[in-house]
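Handout, section B. The chain below has 259 residues.
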Amino acid sequence: MANAGWKVLVVLFFAIPLYLQIVQGFNAFETGVRMLPVSVCLFVTALVGSRLARRFAPRPIVRTGVALLVLASLLLLATIEPQIDTVPFALAMGVLGIGMGLIVSQLGNVVQSAVTEADRGEAGGLQYTGQQLGASMGTALIGAVVISGLIASFSAEVSSDPRISAGVQQQVGVRLDGDVSFVSSDQVRATAAEQGVAAEATDALVESYESAQLRALKTGLLLAALLSMAAFIATANLPGEPPGAAAAAEPRPAVRAAT
């Protein structure tokens, strides 16, 4: 579950800054402000989650968190547009923070309570390893999906646009066969100008690239939603009863009155 949770988190934290900084053109501070609802909601929910654990089993709490990750991914998918809509975006980020807060508030307790004092170091190390492995896998996966989606979508847009000549299309194809990175539309415009591309064709290239950017990012967010759904499988073996429920259910030994 730690592996799955951090995989989803990294996928979202890869796609969202790309949208804010590359597509919207925000600087690091502005990006941080717009991602602040995640941190605030995660912190508050993690505190509340520790209290919920006294009354509810870890499994339903974590499953609620996973469901909120799916919802956050779908909300972000609907929010990613050429112009950011601040309120729905902040709402989606808040839902993401609540979902992660419910998950992280339970996993540590589950891992540490399942072992003895002597094994807690190893258990914590395995949990951290699972998190880092999930983060690494998520980074590699989302990077491949977003860049591949960007190349495929941009190539299709350029090929179908009559404003772009065959020669320019060939140049774009050569560029896409090399190293491709997620850059701003201003950089695409500047590169086209350096290559002597006509103004009309340059505008067409920029429009095609901006459309391809949004498609690639939405593909990445769709991946996050699918990974979140798959994370439900990892919750199957989490404890299904609140702490102490098993002990309370055990019959107490009868006490005989002294005669």
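Note. The two ends are 56 Å apart (CA to CA). Compare this with the example in section A.
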